[in-house]
Backbone:
């Protein structure tokens, strides 16, 4: 079966004077129609870069150095700028982190919404306006007619975020990429069906959300979940992952997580762990210490 | 009044309004053929009273825009209140001038939300950390200052070797540790932390919360913690004040609040806490939007969004009443026993 979106071995590098830095190091995942997937990990793991790479918005000195992004059977990494603009506007849209940065402060919400529509569709201004109204209603903005004539600063933070969502939905895209500033694992676990955990430019664990959060296999996922305050007696010392994510310039050899990992062994410092499949084909973990499913073995 | 009944810090009927009318010309408006003058005020904090006991972690929660940060800043005297009293160990501090405030400033420190904005990018960590000590103890020798900086840095988990570095050379978590170090430099008793972990990843958030709890234990600190993250509040707080549109609607010991929230707003707020791996259930959805603090609703500020509101709620401002052991709620419905 063909997936709606299929990311295969995607690699993103940033070309710098002293050599190329690898920001995304061969990640693969797929997304089906009306499926919700969460990509989680600490800041700097490469979540946003992945989002930008899917819609081919990596700007210099960054570039996609390998892999493919298949959308409806087309490889997005090989499309011309013009074809890509059509995909971006009409088929895949992105909600960025900061609603104040995304909206133009000197244009009314209505102007921004109508312009977006006119850029992508051959419709009249009046038609565009009625679509804009409909989308504002959809995201529950009260008195949308009045609101269309207002500027971003006249909205509260929550309302602004809803407007950004309404703009992302304007062209009825098939995929919406929503980019978040922090880990928000608890939120992601409530709204997604599957989850992929990223660390230092790689996916280290993926699978159905309930399985990953209730029975995490990778020590990094386990650490993230245990660090949440909700699971402990109030006042108890929180479980913290020691140290911090390596910067792209000094990703340790072997498993990138090994210096912070409680289970780290010699093999972890020497070899990159392969993906192990557990529970049928749905769950994958890249850890030397994880036990493979007896029936499957490694990929 | 003894300092005992006022705890370490007490707010009594504190009001903080901001006049945003602008200049005279901005205030003039033509109405029915006459020119009238209008003033616009943001009523950020309205008639707020509470007492914080020594050693307590007192949290203030509420949506963005409810006045939490203004309350924090007013408490520390960064904003002078329009009316009401602020007492520190029983002594009024809201009417003191900068000179008279100095001894209190040493005791009260603040940690800000954004570790990227709250450290001066042009100062090294050493310069940032030594400034408060030197300011409050002009006679201290430079050797003593250096020792103190090194001690506090290792205390918060930042290698003292890095004292010569600038903020941009540190990660977000490290910067927040440096902000905490700056607050600890003068050996304060009371720290107001305004969203100290909301800009941080969960793994780093756990490190910083542990650090704050350890510092509290070692130094007997009292915290006023401002946050919108309810799982963090439940974990660290002794008591919690729930704020809506500049007004306190509920004030309870943390355990009681999370086990049985009384005020309809608290109930809605708590039902929205995301829990790991649990699908959304029982989420009380509030109707409408938070009204603006410029035109406050009459009566109970929450009545427009409350499913229990009746005529009395529209007309009469509810008073804070103790409903049981240390739990106080400002709600007509709770008082009448219908909620």
Residues:
């Amino acid at each position: 079966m063909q997936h709606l979106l299929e990311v295969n071995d995607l690699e993103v590098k940033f070309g710098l004077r002293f050599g190329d830095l690898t920001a995304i190091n061969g990640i693969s995942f797929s997304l089906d129609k009306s499926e919700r997937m969460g990509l989680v990990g600490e800041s700097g793991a490469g979540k946003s870069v992945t989002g930008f790479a899917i819609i081919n918005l990596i700007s210099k000195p960054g570039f996609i150095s390998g892999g493919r992004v298949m959308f409806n059977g087309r490889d997005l990494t090989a499309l011309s700028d013009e074809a890509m603009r059509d995909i971006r506007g009409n088929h895949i849209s992105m909600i960025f982190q900061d609603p104040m940065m995304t909206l133009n402060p000197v244009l009314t919400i209505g102007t921004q919404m109508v312009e977006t529509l006119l850029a992508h569709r051959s419709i009249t201004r009046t038609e565009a306006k009625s679509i804009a109204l409909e989308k504002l209603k959809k995201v529950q903005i009260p008195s949308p007619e009045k609101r269309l004539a207002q500027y971003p600063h006249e909205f509260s933070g929550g309302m602004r975020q809803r407007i950004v969502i309404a703009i992302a939905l304007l062209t009825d895209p098939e995929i919406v990429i929503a980019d978040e500033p922090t880990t928000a694992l608890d939120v992601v676990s409530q709204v997604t069906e599957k989850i992929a955990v990223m660390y230092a430019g790689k996916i280290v664990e993926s699978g159905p959300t309930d399985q990953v959060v209730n029975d995490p296999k990778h020590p990094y996922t386990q650490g993230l979940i245990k660090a949440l305050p909700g699971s402990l007696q109030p006042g108890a010392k929180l479980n913290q992952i020691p140290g911090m994510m390596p910067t792209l310039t000094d990703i340790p050899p072997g498993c990138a997580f090994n210096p912070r990992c409680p289970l780290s062994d010699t093999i972890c410092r020497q070899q990159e762990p392969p993906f192990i499949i557990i529970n049928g084909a749905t769950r994958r973990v890249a850890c030397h210490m994880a036990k493979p499913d007896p029936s499957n073995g490694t990929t | 009044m003894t300092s005992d009944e006022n705890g370490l810090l007490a707010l009594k009927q504190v009001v903080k309004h901001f006049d945003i009318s602008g200049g005279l010309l901005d205030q003039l408006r033509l109405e029915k053929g006459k020119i009238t003058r209008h003033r616009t005020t943001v009523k950020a904090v309205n008639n707020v009273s509470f007492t914080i006991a020594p050693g307590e972690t007192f949290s203030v929660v509420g949506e963005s825009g409810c006045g939490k940060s203004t309350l924090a800043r007013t408490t520390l005297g960064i904003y002078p209140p329009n009316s009401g009293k602020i007492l520190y160990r029983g002594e009024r501090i809201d009417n003191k001038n900068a000179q008279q405030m100095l001894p209190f400033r040493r005791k009260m420190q603040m940690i800000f939300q954004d570790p990227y904005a709250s450290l001066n990018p042009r100062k090294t960590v050493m310069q940032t950390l030594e400034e408060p000590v030197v300011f409050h103890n002009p006679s201290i020798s430079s050797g003593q200052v250096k020792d103190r900086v090194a001690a506090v840095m290792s205390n918060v988990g930042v290698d003292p070797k890095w004292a010569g570095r600038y903020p941009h050379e540190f990660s977000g978590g490290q910067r927040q540790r440096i902000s905490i170090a700056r607050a600890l430099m003068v050996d304060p008793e009371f720290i107001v932390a305004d969203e100290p972990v909301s800009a941080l990843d969960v793994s780093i958030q756990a490190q910083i919360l542990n650090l704050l709890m350890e510092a509290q234990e070692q130094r007997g600190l009292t915290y006023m913690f401002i946050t919108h993250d309810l799982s963090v509040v439940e974990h660290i707080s002794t008591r919690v004040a729930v704020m809506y549109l500049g007004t306190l609607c509920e004030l309870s010991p943390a355990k009681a609040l999370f086990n049985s929230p009384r005020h309809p707003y608290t109930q809605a707020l708590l039902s929205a806490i995301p829990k790991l791996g649990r699908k959304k259930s029982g989420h009380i959805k509030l109707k409408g939007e938070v009204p603006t603090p410029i035109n406050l609703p009459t009566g109970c500020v929450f009545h427009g969004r409350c499913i229990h509101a009746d005529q009395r709620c529209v007309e009469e401002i509810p008073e804070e009443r103790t409903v049981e052991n240390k739990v106080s709620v400002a709600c007509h419905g709770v008082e009448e026993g219908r909620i």
User: Anything to note?
Assistant: The longest strand of chain B covers residues 41-52. The domain at 9-265 of chain B is CATH 3.40.50.300 (Rossmann fold).
